[in-house]
Amino acid sequence: MKVGKGDALLVVDIQYDFLPGGSLAVQDADQVIPLLNDYISFFRNRHLPVLACRDWHPHDHSSFAENGGPWPPHCIAGTHGAQFSDQLALPPDAPVFSKGTVREKEAYSAFDGTELDEKLREEAINRIFIGGLTTDYCVLNSVLDASRLGYDSVVLLDATKAVNLNPGDGKAAIERMKACGASLIKREEIS
Ligand code: VGL
Ligand code: ZN
User: Fold this and answer.
1) pTM for this one?
2) Whether 138 is catalytic
3) How many angstroms separate the alpha carbon of residue 64 from the centre of ligand 2?
4) For ligand 1, is residue 18 a contact (CB within 6 Å)?
5) pLDDT in tens, 105-132
6) Ligand 1 pocket check: which of 27, 61, 74, 145 to mutate, most ligand atoms within 8 Å of Cβ?
7) How much is the average pLDDT of 60-74?
8) 112 within ligand 1 shell (Cβ under 6 A)
9) How high does pLDDT run on average in the chain?
10) Nearest of 35, 36, 79 to residue 55 by alpha carbon
11) What is the CATH number for 178?
C-alpha cells in the first residue's frame, strides 16, 4: 500500500491509564508504542499529518462504575493517568482531540464532540491510518464514524490492543471494521 498526499495518521489514547499499571490497563498495550513511534516517523518523514486523540473525562463521568457505567475511573482530565506516555514520540505540534469530556455522554469515537472532521477537511485528508487503544472501543468507533463521514480508513493491526471486556471483543471489532470497508495492515505493508 502506497502512502501519500491525502493520508493522515491518528494515534489513539496512548495514555497511562490504558497502559500496564494504569486504572484501566489493557494487556500488552505498551507493546504498541514502539510501533506507533515508527508509524509517526514514517508519516512525518513524508510531511503527512500526525494527529492524536485522548480520553479526557470529568472526575464523575457517567462511564465510571460508581455512576453505573462499565469502567473503573480512568483518564480524568488533568491527572497523570490521562497523560500521554512519555515513551510516545508524538510531535509537539500534533493536534490533540479530547473526547468523553461531557459527564452525561460516553464518546468512544475520536470524531464524537471534537473538531477532528473539520481539521481533516482543512488538510484535505481523505484516508486515515488509525492505531492505538483500544481496538474494541475508540479505534472501532472512530473507524465506523470515519466511514460514515466518507473517509477511507486503514487499521494498524500491529499497533492496536483490545480491552476484551468480553472475550472475543477485539476479534469482533476487527470483523466489524473490515465489514465497513476498512483496510487492515501491518507495518511491512506500507511504503
Ligand atoms: C476507551 C474504554 C473506556 C477507548 C475509553 O478510548 O478505547 N475504552 N474509555
Ligand atoms: Zn473512557
Assistant:
1) 0.98
2) yes
3) 8
4) no
5) 999 999 999 999 999 999 999 999 999 9
6) 74
7) 98
8) no
9) 98
10) 79
11) 3.40.50.850
Distance CA 163, CA 175 (A): 16
SS3 93: coil
- Establish if 173 belongs to a structural domain: yes
Cα(57) to ligand 2 centroid in Å equals 7
Residue 1 covered by a domain: no
- Does ligand 1 lie within 6 Å of residue 114's CB atom? no
Residue 2 domain flag: no
CB 146 within 8 A of CB 153: yes
pLDDT at 80: 98
What is the extent of the structural domain holding 68? 7-189
Q: For residue range 75-87, list pLDDT tens digits in order.
A: 999 999 999 999 9
Which residue in 7, 99, 136, 161 is the catalytic one?
Answer: 99
Give me the number of domains the chain comprises.
Answer: 1
In a domain, 61, yes or no: yes
Looking at ligand 1, which atom is closest to the CA of residue 138? 7
C-alpha closest to that of 137 among 35, 32, 13 = 13
Q: Which residues of 44-56 are buried (b: 16+ CB within 10 A; e: fewer)?
A: eeeebbbbbbbbb
